Every structure is written in C-alpha cells, then in structure tokens.
Amino acid sequence: MKVQNKKCIFRLSLKNMKSSKVRNIIAVIAVALTTLLFTALFTIIMSISKGFEYSNFRQIGTRAHGEFKHLTEEQFNLLKTADAIEEYGLRRVLGIGADEVLIKNYTEISFMDKNAAEWGFVTPTNGRLPKENTNEAAADTRLLDALGVPVEAGSEFSVSIDVDGTITTENFVLCGWWEFDGASPASNILIPESRLEETFEKLDTQFDDENTGSYSLTVMLENSDNIEEKMNDILSGNDFSTDASDENYIALGVNWGYMSESFAESADAGTIFAIVVMLVMIIATGYLIIYNVFRISVSNEIRRYGMLKTIGTTGRQLYSMILIQAIFLSLFGIPLGLLFGFGTGVALTPVVINELNISHSAGVSTSPIIFVFSAIFAVLTVLISCFKPARIAAGVSPIEALRYNETMINNHFRKGTKGVSIPKMAAANLVVNKVRTVLTIISLSLSVVLFTFTVTFANSFSMEKYLADTPFDFQVSTVDYFMSGTQWEPETAMTFEETDFLRNTDGVTESFCAYGTSITNNPDAFYSEEFIRSHSEALGLDKDYVDGYISSAERDENGMFANSVQVLGMDSQGLGRLKVLEGDLKKLNESGYIAVEKSDFFKLGDKIKVRYTDLVQYVNSADGNIYTSFEDIPKSKYADIEIENIYHDVWYEICAVVDIPYALGYRYSISGDLFLLDVKNFRTETENIAPLYVAFDVSDGAEQDTEQFLSEYTDNSFLDYSSRAKKAEEFESFRRMFLILGGALSFIVGLIGVLNFVNTVLTGIISRRKELATLQAIGMTGKQLKTMLICEGLFYTAGAAITAVILNLLTIPMSSVIEKLFWFCEFRFTFIPMAVTIPIFALVGVVVPVITYAVLAKKSVVERLRECE
Amino acid sequence: MAIVSCEKLKKVYGSGENEVHALDGISLEAEQGEFVSIVGTSGSGKSTLLHMLGGLDRPDSGTVTIDGKSIFSLKDEELTIFRRRKIGFVFQNYNLVPSLNVYENIVLPVQLDGREPDREYIDSIIETLGLSEKLENLPNNLSGGQQQRVAIARALASKPAIILADEPTGNLDSKTSQDVLGLLKITSSKYTQTIVMITHSEEIAQLADRIIRIEDGKIALKA
What we know:
The structure holds two protein chains of two kinds.
Chain A: H1 6-18, H2 21-60, E1 66-71, H3 73-79, E2 85-97, H4 100-104, E3 107-112, H5 114-119, E4 126-127, E5 136-140, H6 141-147, E6 156-163, E7 166-178, E8 187-190, H7 193-203, E9 215-221, H8 227-237, E10 252-254, H9 256-259, H10 263-266, H11 269-300, H12 302-310, H13 315-355, H14 368-394, H15 398-403, H16 422-432, H17 434-460, H18 463-468, E11 474-478, H19 479-482, H20 496-503, E12 508-516, E13 524-527, H21 529-538, H22 543-552, E14 561-564, E15 566-570, H23 572-575, E16 579-583, E17 593-597, E18 607-615, E19 618-620, E20 626-627, E21 641-643, E22 646-659, E23 674-678, H24 679-685, E24 690-698, H25 703-714, E25 719-723, H26 724-766, H27 769-777, H28 782-811, H29 815-821, H30 832-856, H31 861-867
Parallel strand pairs in A: 3-8, 5-7, 15-23, 17-22
Antiparallel strand pairs in A: 1-9, 1-10, 2-3, 2-6, 2-9, 4-7, 5-8, 6-7, 11-24, 11-25, 12-15, 12-24, 13-14, 13-18, 16-22, 17-23, 18-22, 19-20, 19-21
Chain B: E1 2-13, E2 20-31, E3 35-39, H1 46-53, E4 61-66, E5 69-70, H2 76-86, E6 87-90, H3 102-112, H4 119-129, H5 144-157, E7 162-166, H6 174-190, E8 194-199, H7 202-205, E9 210-215, E10 218-222
Parallel strand pairs in B: 3-8, 3-9, 6-7, 7-8
Antiparallel strand pairs in B: 1-2, 1-4, 4-5, 9-10
Helix pairs in contact in B: 3-5, 4-5, 5-6
C-alpha cells in the first residue's frame, strides 16, 4: 500500500520544530561552527595550493597554458585561428641585453602583445605598453634602477643588445614599468613590434638563432586538462608534425605549472595525514555537539514521539522527521558557517602563507571547491550525528514513552541506602544520563586539550636549537643560494672582491668563507652496489629504475660505483665553526685528508677515492669530433654524442666526521655525501670553484648597523644575506603561526564545547522543571536548588578538567616524535592553558544554571507543577 | 485541637471577564490523626485549596494555621523550611526524583533539612509499605502503585504534622488504588498522622473519616 504522506510528514516535522526553539538555535549555531571550521580549513588549503601554483607560474615566467615556438608569420596566423585556442598572445624576441648590467640581470628585449605581457607577469603597473611606431619601451624597476634610469615616464635610456650575434646600442623612452618579481627567471624590456622589424632591417639580421625574431604563439585553451594532447592535436590538425626530425616540425612548450598540478596532488603523505586528522577532528567535534543536541531533544520529546506513534505514525516516518529537522536547521547553519568560515580563512591564510616560501600575491582562493566541500562535509557531519537520535525516536515504544515522566533513563538500580546530600544529588543526575554527560565532558575537554597542546608545542620551540644552525651573525651569498628551489652556481657566484670587501667591513670581528663547485661539475665518490641498492630502497625509488642505473653506471676497477658527491671547501676560520663528531679536523691542513658529514657509508679512517672532472667533452662517436660546450654541438648530431670527461682521481683518508649545519653547506642536497676539504687543498684539485658564501660575526652593538648596511648592499643585486636576527625573527613568526592557528582552532572548538555544555545544562534544567518544582514542594529551598544546579555545572567542568589532564598526559609520549619532526623543538609541557581555560568553563558552569534557574523561578512552584501535567 | 485550619481563604485567578474565583472564602479545620477527604469536580478549587494548605501558593486573603503557626506570615525560604518539617505531599504523578533510588527518595526531605533520618522509624515505614526489597531501585523500575507507596513513605519520613494528598490514586487502577489507600490509612493511623486528601472519586473519598465537598470555591456540604 502506498500512501501519499511525504508532505504531511514534512509539515509535521517543521511544526514540531517550533516547540524546540532553544534546541533550534543551539543546533544552528553548532552546525554553523562546524561548517566554519571546515570552510576555514579548506580556504587555507586551497589558498596554499593557489599560492604554489602561482609561484610555479612566476618561476616559469608565464601562466599561459602553452606556447608554439619558432613560428613564421604565416604559421602564426594559421595556428592562432585553431578552435581549441580560447585566447592567444604574441611574443617576438629581438635579443638579449649585452651591457654588463644587463648580463648580470639576464635581460630579454622583446615585443609582447597585451595577452603575452599579462600572462608573463610583465604588464606595466604604471604607464602602459609601448605604442607601435614609437621609440618607447617598458621595463622592470630592478633593471631600471640598475641602469640608473629615473623611474618616470619619458626617461630616456640606452642599452646594448645582442641581436643574433650582433651587438647594437639602442635608445628608448620609458613608457611603463612594473616591480621586478624575485621568482622570475629574467628581466624584460618590452618594445613595439615596429622597432623590432626596424632593428632587424638596420642590422640586416640573418636569423641564425631561431629564437631571434620568430613568432611565439602563447595560448590559453579552454581548460588546463591535457594541454599537451590538445596542442599536438592543433598541430596535426594543421598538417604540422610534432616529430623533431620532420621538415614541418613545430616545437611546443607546455606550462608544467599546470602539469605538476596543485599542491593538493603533490602533497606528501605527512601533509595529507595532517589534513585527514584535521577533518576527522572537526567531524568529531561537530558530532559531539550535534549528536548530543539531537539526542537530548529526542529524549526530552520522547512522549511526543510515542504519542505520534500511538496515533499511527510509523518508525520510518519518525526517523525521517528527525532528519528533515536536521537538514532544515542545516539550511540556516551551513550558509552562516560558510560565510564566517571564509572570513576566518581569509584572516588566517596570510599567517600560513607567510611561513611557506610561496607567493602571497596569489591572494586567498575563492574557488567554489571550498564551499562545495565544506558544505558536503558539514551535511555529512550533521547526518552522521542524527542517525542515532533518529533511530531512538523511530524505535520508541508508545507505552513506554508515556510512562516516562521526563527524560529517558536506562538504568534501573542505584547502589546505596545512605541517603543523599546536595552534591550527591547533582552527581546522581549526571550519572543517570551517562551518554549526555560523557559527550558534554569530552566536547568541553577537547578544546582544552587542543589549546594545551598548541601552547606546549609553541613553548617547545627552542630558539637555542633553532639558532644552533646559524653559527654566525651574518652570511652573504647569491639569491640562488638562499632561495629554496634554486641552486647556487659558480658562474653567478660572489666575486673575491665582494667577499674581501665584506670581510673588511667595519665592525666585523671574525669572518670565514666556503667554496663550492657547480651541481653539474660535482666530483664523484665510490659506493658499493649493495649500499646504493639499500639507499635507493630507503628513498622509495623504483626497482627497475635502480636496476637500470646500476647496469648503466660507471664502475671502477673494484666494481664500485661512481656517484656525485658534494665537496665543500672552507678556510681555517670556517672549519673552526664546525662540530666534530669523530676524528680531528686539523689534519685537513695536510693534503691527503678529507672530512665527511655524518654518513651511512663512509667511516672515520676510510681510504677513499674522489674523482675530479677536469674537462667535460662531448664526443661524436660517428666522426670522432670533440666538443667542449654543449651549445657547440649541431642539433642534427645529438644522437651520436657521448660524454667522455677528462678526470683525475685523488686518494684521501677520512680524518674526521663532522656535523655541517644546513646553513653552512650548499643548502641543497644530492644523493651523494657531503665532503669537506681545506680550501687550499680543494683548489689544487679543481679550478672550477667559487665562493659559496661569506659569513662573519660583528662586534656587539654593531648588529643593527650591519643589518642596515647589508640590506642596502644587497638591494637590487643578485646578492642576499641571512642573519641571526633574521633567523630569530623567522623563528618567532613560525612560532606565532602555530599559536595563531592552534589558538583559533582551540577557540572555535572551545565555543562548540561551551555551547554543548550550555545546551546540556539548559535542557537539563528545563526538562526537569517539574522535578525541580517537586523538590521545592517537598522542602528544598531555592538556595539548595541553586547549589545543586551549580554543583552539576561544576561537575561537568571538573570532568572536563580531569579528561583534559589525562588526554594531555597521553601526549607526553609523543614528545620524541615531535622532537624528531621538528628538529628545533625541545618538548616542554605546560599546564598554563588549562589553568586559564578551566576557570572560564567553571564560570560558565556557575552562571548558566543560575540564570536558567532565575528565569525558571519567575513562575511559582504551583504553576510549574501544573504546567507539566 | 485542630492541627490544621484555614480561615476565609480567597484566591482569584485572572481579571475582568476571565476572573475565576478559585477559592471563595473557605474555612475548615482538621484534628490530629483525622483523615479528611475533599471532593469536587475539576475546576471546583480543590487543588487550589490543597496548595494553599501546603503553603505552595499564597491566598489573596485569609489564613492557614498549621500546628499553631500562621504559615503565610513566613517568608518564602522560611515557608519552604517549615513545609519540609511539617507537611508531607503525595502527588497524583508520584513526582519521585528519577535519578535517586527508592531509599534516597524517601529520606530526601529529612536530609534536605540537614537532619539524619530516624533509621528505625524509616525502616518501619518501609516495612509497612512493603518496599524493603526495592530500596535500590530507580523509580522508573517500579510500577505506579509501587511509586505511589514510595511517595507516601517520603511524605511520612519527616514525621510531618499533616499529609496532603493530591489525587493520590488518580493514575492507578481501582485494585491498586484500594491497596495504596489502605496503606495510607494504616500508616497514618499507626503514626497518628493527619491526612487531607483531594479526589474526584466518591468511592475513594468514602475511605476517609470525613468528606468535605467543594463547589465553585465554596464548601458545599460537610459530611
């Protein structure tokens, strides 16, 4: 039999809701706070993701989906009309800067149309792009500053340009500029296309370099899925080949910023784990309150549900009635939560982004995913929380429901015939509603635990440990050296004039230098196959990959494998700053000795062989031709080229095992170990070394002046510096981030806990108003009653305090994990957050019953006794 | 001598059109050990009268004297304390505290007064009411008749001057009603308790020593 009763049930559930105003308000706030937590979390995650993506684009230099390279004008005009291309931009390169300043600030002089400039982050923020048929140009401010050009419209300047091998000096008038972006690979001077043609004509350019003057079509497709496939389709659709050996080949570039995908996909297991833990915690927090609110409300209205069942409502219908109510309340709560959650996310995102080495300019993400996911998780939490209460309502037996005067009590006995006291009565009431009591206490203690953990964690940050990694007042090197994601290169390293100048700056008390080789020119050391296998396994490398490597890698006469290692050269002052774990560093003074950073393979006293490359040679196996530079090799010969380096081997004895702090090494690592030589012995083996950095201490009181001096000295150059003060600031701001995030989370979770608490106490008093009236009738004074209710409130607080202490003590064994994860942590437990929060909860525990009772007491005992009948 | 008496009790609820004279100048008294039942239809004012006698509500005019004390001269808190010492209540819905067991419910009024229960006396009440086996039960584990017996025990526990029973058998079937009232009567005579009971049932009222009939807030007939 099928009956059309959905409407009736719907109406009934909404009508039913009207009678539980307090519950509705509390439930809406609970749902809103839960949604808030989800939304804030997702906003932060998505903003970080966006920041990462944006950082990639800036490093790449464009956010266009891709580029068709080296086109002729006809090819450009043909391809740009392809259907799959939503928008396109044009870029044509005139040449690269040839002045010393322009070489140092690698500069490209080119024409870009509006789209190409915008996608390439070079749209002038002041002024505009150059107009055709003028001698205007636009450039970035770093370049203009370096050239000494006043940054104002109409400034005239001239630069030398290498156009296809010919150097020409050109004059321009500045028409627009923008701030140089530190992450960007190059500086740019933008000129009109007319000027480009004019210059080619003037110089009678032969276009030997295919970059010169060719049309570069940058494109935006419909979306960023399968960019390469779509671009290949465009080419084959126009009868071009994607095979480099074909005559009609067109090269294309795909923006890997879209390929590598977002932070969300590249996130490591630890990050994903942290996010999952957060989500589970938020669901649990939401569950604790929403479940409790609905359970209490169902249990308080059990007679009504029993009555509805008596008159013919089925269990199923009662079940859906509860869910309909929950969904209806979510309709109010979730949008509120999304709104405030996004606001919270907007406020907190900069705090997080500042600590990550990513772009802030990407701003806060407004992706719809944030709201969709938050809403889904919120609905999920609400439903999970309401299933059980709905089942209780559905399973109610009409007879039993009518028997219960007030709340449902499942116990049947209570030990003891000693009588009662006021506190005992309060305790009895908590015991009789075990589930409610436990849920409320856990909910309340959760924020205390979180807050205590946050403060304990932040408190455990050891400045001493953190700065142990910075055994100097100041360190100066190139931007590449300091920036994560880039590597120091000898070609762009500091000069000896610069290091000498800095070492002799006023106030410097002691200084030292380290020297290095480029990543492409690293020496080799020799490892056993067994070690390489176990090491690769530990790194999680694919077995096939390792097999391939081992079968192809070079072996020496002992069957050992050559593997790139880093060698660091230091002067004696620098060596003196290192912590020696074993052996003696003084021996480095003599030749034939080397030190190693704590290694899994090399031990103190080992005799080892290091292979230094003297000359890189590219040999054409077909004709025997030798090239010393990769650029010299004709493209058509690539397939026949083999690398045959000229090298020499040096035998060393390991005289010491040392600890080399990150800040004193290369600041990037490779698979091989890090060795240490005295710089004078290093230099005898390879000429290809350059100053990695210079570091120095200054006399007391000179720190600020030096900081100021270095900040000016490194401004607008490829140099940057690090200082103990900067590190200390970094440390403080990192600690602050944890405090702010943890504090904000604890606060919201605390609000939820207090709300849960208030609801429990409030409903506990309201649903017992007849019982309380009876107590008064049989002789309980108002004062005694109030004392009893306050006792109940305080018992919840006490329960929460005890639970929090126990849970917090359970975190103590985690201290070693934390110290391992965060090397600068020294676990220091603190009870202060508990001492702060528990009294607040206790206050709530006193105030809520007192106020509720005061409201209740406005009606006389008789009125209250009657109204419940 | 009268243990309880009231004089010209008046109580008006509402005002204007809706004015209801719940009590319209009622005077009555009951002797020590007497079992008085007050009968009347619903809305006759019998419940209001009982609440006045118990000091739960204050009249517009008139006095109630219990054990020689004019109760409305007392302040609210004093009145509550007086009530727990001198008056025992038995309600239609038993109104036991659901979180306390039978024994704790029984001794509650005594302990609220800060006194130690007279164990021998309490035991004998429990014995008489047949509750010895149920002392550690929670009220929800008892039948209606059992709950009402606990309520009676609670009313007797503080050795009050008077027991006020408000439709004590209203929720019970007739057999159980007879049993419960029988017990009420036995215990009250055993401890020479005065009982004032209100009921709408003539049959139940017949068990009392004296029946007072109330109509429209006035005493209609003394039987």
